[in-house]
Amino acid sequence: MRKEKVVVGIDVGTTKVVTLVGNVIDGTIEIIGMGKSESHGLEKGVVVDIGRTMSSIRKSVEEAENMADVKIDAVYVGIAGKHISSINNSGTVSINRPDRIITDEDVRRVVETAQAIQIPPESEMIHVIPRQYIVDGQDGITDPVGMTGTRLEVDVHIVTGSITAVHNLVRCVETLGIGIKQIVLEPIASSLAVLSSAEKELGVILMDIGGGTTDISVFRGGDIWFSKVIPIAGEHITNDITVGLQTPIEEAELVKKMHGTALVDSVGEEEKIEVASIGGDEKKLVSKKRLAKIIEPRIEELLDLGMQEVEDAGYRDLVPAGLVLTGGCSLLNGLTDFASQRYDIPVRRGKIPQGIHGLRDIVESPIYATSIGLLRYAVETKDFKKPEFYEKKRESIVSKLFSWFNRFFRG
Ligand SMILES: Nc1ncnc2c1ncn2[C@@H]1O[C@H](COP(=O)(O)OP(=O)(O)OP(=O)(O)O)[C@@H](O)[C@H]1O
Ligand SMILES: [Mg+2]
Asked: How confident is the model over 193-249, as pLDDT tens digits?
C-alpha cells in the first residue's frame, strides 16, 4: 500500500521566510507548494519583533497554501542564533528483567538519563539526538530494541537554546493558529538537505552562510557532533560595501551578487563597474578589485571564525570530507576556491541530493537548503526531544476552555 502524508517546513531566516509543503510518498518527498516572503522582525537569526515576524510568516504560509491547495495546520520550524549551544553526553541503564531483551521503554529510559545534565540558566533543550547505543560494550548500534543485553548505554548530542528566543518564535507561529511539531536547529536541517551519507560517515564540516548568521556543524560516523551559530553573514558583507563604496544598501546588495568575489587576485585592476551614489542619480565608476578588497577580508574573518570554532571543539583534523558550503552567501563567486586555498581542504557548494522532487529549478538553490532539510527531518527524524512543551500549552488552553464551558453551561 502506498504511504502518503503531507509535511510542512518553515525556515524563518533573517532575510526571507520560506514555507515548503512536501507530499511524502513512500519516503520520497515531492514539493507541492512554496511560499517566500521578505523577512522583517529578525536580527541575527533571532525574533526581535513578534508582530512583523508574524506577518512575514503569514504571507509565506498563505502563498504555500494556495500553491499546494492545502490548509497548513502543523509545521517543522527552523531555529538559529548565537544563543544556541550544544553538548555531548552519555547515559547508562541496566536491564534487569530475566529475558534481558531491550525494549522501547529501556531506550526511552537510557536517553532520559543522558539528558540529566546542567544546562545554562534561561535555556532549554531543543534536541536530544542519540548518536549511538552501546550494548554490553558493543558500540556503533543504531537501534538496540530487540537485542539482548544487561547494560545499555547511549551517546547523545544535546542542543540547547534560550527560552526567550525559542518561545518568541513559537508564539509567532502559534498565534497564526498553526501548531508546531518540532523546532529544529537550522544546521541540522541544512545538513539533511546537502550532505551525502558518505560525507557524514567520513567526517565533514557544514557551513550555512545566510543573511544574518553562519551556522556551523560537524558530522562524523553519520551523526552530528558539533553545532554552533555565529552572528556574521551576508548582510555584514553588504553593509561593508555600503560604507566602502558609499552606495545605498539595495545597490550594495545587487553589486555584491553580480560582481562580488571572495578572491581579490582573480580580478584585474582595469575591470570597472557602475555603482549608484547615495542621494543622487549619478552613477560612479568603481574598480571590481576595490569591491573584492571589501569582500575578501570579511569572508576571511567569517570563515576563520567558523574554522576556529571547529578547531576549538577538537574536530579540525577529523573531517577528511572537508567543508561543504550552503546558504545564500555560498553563491558568492570565488568562495569555494578561497576556502580551499586558505584551509587546504576539499571545499564544495552543497547540492540538494536525490529523493526530492518537484519545483526543482527553485529548490536547487542553496537558499532553500534549510527548508528542504526541514522536510527531510520530518520524514527521517530520530530525535527524542518531543515537543511536550507546546503540546502541554495547547492542552491547557483547551482544558481552560472546557472548564469555562462547563462552568457556564452547567453551573
Ligand atoms: N549570488 C549571490 N552572491 C552573493 N551573495 C548572495 C547571492 N545570493 C544571495 N546572497 C546572499 O545570501 C544572503 C541570504 O542567504 P539566505 O537566504 O541563506 O539567508 P537567510 O536564511 O534569510 O538568513 P539566516 O539563515 O542568516 O537567518 C544574503 O545576504 C544575500 O545577499
Ligand atoms: Mg538561513
From this structure: 999 989 999 999 999 999 999 999 999 988 888 888 898 999 999 999 999 999 999
Q: Is the CB of 255 under 6 A from ligand 1?
A: no
Question: pLDDT tens digit string along 32-87?
Answer: 999 999 999 998 888 999 999 999 999 999 999 999 999 999 999 999 888 888 88
pLDDT, mean of residues 380-391: 54
Cβ contacts of 341-346, under 8 Å, gap ≥ 24: 342/300, 342/303, 343/303, 343/307, 345/319, 346/321, 346/322
Cα 221 to Cα 91, 131, 140, 225, distances in angstroms: 19, 9, 9, 9
Chain centroid to CA 377: 10
Mean pLDDT value across the chain: 89
CA-nearest residue, atom 12 of ligand 1: 328
Q: What is the pTM of this model?
A: 0.88
Q: CB neighbours of 6 closer than 8 A, spacing ≥ 6?
A: 21, 22, 23, 24, 32, 68, 70
The protein residue whose alpha carbon is closest to atom 4 in ligand 1 is 332
Ligand 1 pocket member 210 (CB < 6 A):
yes
Contact 233, 213 (CB under 8 A): yes
**Residue 33: its H or E element:** strand 28-38
pLDDT above 90 for 180 = yes
Q: Are 155 and 141 in contact (CB under 8 A)?
A: no
Q: Are 145 and 102 in contact (CB under 8 A)?
A: yes
> First CA to last CA across the chain, in angstroms?
51
Q: Which residues contact 319 (CB under 8 A, 6 or more apart)?
A: 202, 203, 204, 205, 218, 220, 310, 345
Please name each of the domains of the chain with its CATH number.
Answer: 85-159 (3.30.1490.110), 198-348 (3.30.420.40)
DSSP strands (E only) in 293-388: 323-326, 347-349, 356-357
Atom in ligand 1 nearest the alpha carbon of residue 327: 18
